[in-house]
Amino acid sequence: MALAFPVPSDCSSTGIPVAEILRVSTEEQAADTRAGLDRQRAVNQRTIEVKGLYRALTIELRVSGTVAVHHPEMRRVLAMISEGTIRGIVCSDLDRLFRPDQPQGFAILQVFQDMDAKIYTGDSDYDLRTSSGLLQSSIRGAIAGFELSLIRERLQGAKEAKRRQGKCPTNAYTLPLGIGYDRSTDTWTYTPEIAKVKLLFDLFQQGTRNYSELGRRIGLSNAGVKFLLKNRLYTGWRVIDQKRGPKRTSVTGKLYRVKVARAPEDVIRNKVLDGIISEEAFEEVQREIALTKFNFIEANRSSPMVHLATGVLACGCCGQPMFLTSRSRTRATYIVCKANHYLHKKDLGGCRQPNLREDETEAALIKLVGEVLATPERLVQILEASARKTRELITPFSSAVAPSTQIEELKRRDARLVDAFAQGVLSVDELRSKREAIRRERDAFEQTLKPKPSPDHASLLLQARLVVKAALRFSTIGNRYQQKAILNELFSEIHVRHHEIISFKFRPSVMGGSDSADQVLLAQPVGIGKPPMIVPEGHRHCIKCLQVKSKSQFYRKLNRCNSCRKAADRENYQRRRTTTSAQKPLYE
Ligand SMILES: [Zn+2]
Ligand SMILES: [Zn+2]
Question: Quick one: three-class SS letters along 11-43?
């Protein structure tokens, strides 16, 4: 939270432009202490008057000193210093600017030194160009960091002592549902909501194991239910067996400390209340929770829900992976190109690849492994034919710019660098590192231009035998988990285009050597689903009666002919009539 104040009009625009920095941490915020905002403003005003400065802007931070440097407002100020728009900052004390708890916290001083900017505080100002100024500011910063760790230790020590006495050092909102704590008398109490928790334990003991169902009954989320059922405080015992560990950054960018287990001698146990559930019953609940979780995981592990195509299938039109649509009980599952998936279509712009039925695609995959790779001779034939073809054709996914033109461009860039060095724009070190980067890039391109040696027939046959062995295992085992594992062992990618498997890539480990990573084109693609029916011009194919009829027999783009549609409508009408007349009224 930061507020940028407009520049006061009474302030003269002469003098050295500086930024005023006010900072309070969340703890200091409420208290009227030395660090109070009004006091900081007063000190800064005096500094500005005495030193003849000009306040260009004011920022107000409400964060801890360890993270103040990373605050967006603070970064803006540092950027202004780098640009030269302002020539220093004013703060009441150096600890308002930073309290480094790590050595890299001092890096902020570098910006000031580079730009010859000064730090003005109430009692002294620091010119970082001079060695004494640098030393002073570093020492002052280190002391500020040390003070912080002292404050922290004192605070944590007091909290820990309270915990050991069975008191609660934290705010009421850290307590679980139905439990309250009076800080003036240091007593634990139950709040009226404890009735909900009692009901929850009762329901669970009566056999309701579904967390969502339990949550609906008492008005909580399913995760909330789980945590309540596991909280030992409801037996009356307050057990603290965890503490905050190392710092971590969450996915949303927030800094937090993970919870880690305490050492056995540090675990705190206190009887603070008469429990609402006996300890034996609580242990029974814990056993049931563990069993439910175990059963759930086991059930998932043995379920036949294995999708052979995911992870290995890729689109032959655009190169994106193929995704699965969500499973539904009534409709078939489809495999779609990522570029057509509803989450990515907007970004990737869609693809011409039609959606494929999962069952048909899996049948085609099994056919590919079971028939096409069935004999070593057949596989070698495919590999050699593919190698001939790739030499003649450009591979489907080669980069848009030919490597030779990119090498030319790199040569030109190299020449420009040397020119820049000759004119004194670049230093020797910069020139060396930049030329090194260009040289590496050029090597990589030249590698792709070199013709690859084609492996001889005998070694291909040897490797093919290994692949065929694995493929044979694939068609004999019935376990889909193992089938998927074999598929993943053999292939890194299998490409589909429209309704055909057109090519694949073996995993580098499968065929040995580097050329195994090449794409293998299938001379005869493996079809997915039924081959498309060829119908004469002006005719269409009805998916119900399977007849080829003229287009006038179809209503717009519907895929059933008019007579099939009418028959279905009649049937539906009859069924509705019989069911509604047979149905009993809902309420009597
Ligand atoms: Zn695609
Ligand atoms: Zn029909």
Answer: CCCCCEEEEEEEECCHHHHHCCCCCCHHHHHHH
